[in-house]
Amino acid sequence: MTKRGATSSYFVLFLLLLVLAQGAYVGIGLYLTPTVANVLPNPARAGGVITIHGSNFAADAWDNAVLFGNQSGKVTRTTASTIEVELPPGGSAGTTHAVVRVVVGGRVSAPFEITIAPSVAAVSSPEPPPPTPTTIPTPAPASPPRSTPPPTPRPAPSATPASPRVADLLAEAATA
Hints:
It is built from 3 helices and 10 strands, in the order H-E-E-E-E-E-E-E-E-E-E-H-H.
């Protein structure tokens, strides 16, 4: 084999290995751009959880990033075709629009616009103030107070006689 033939064989082998290596990367999704097909629910609540449906997402949650305008959401669960993400809490009380982008391996999806409704806490009315205490006037007494103290109660009569002689007299009176 000539020197030129050996060099071309190595070059072909190098190209073949390079193509196979790139094919392996493409096969696991490192170089494919993620695509967002749908976002549910839409409209979503600020601070709530949404599911992004699409393709070319990383299977591990930490390999995906989801951007809502200039804020990032917290990715909680992923598959190759879905991402569950918590929206950042909203600061405004009105409905807003946000552009969603998914970033996987340095590749960024095309923008997808969603509507974000305010969170329940942002819409709820403030608590009413506590009730003010009221004073109920007491009526004047019906009769004037007594100037003399009430009589002291007398002790109840005793059932037993005070002396044996009284007992004899009572017994005679009962027989008569």
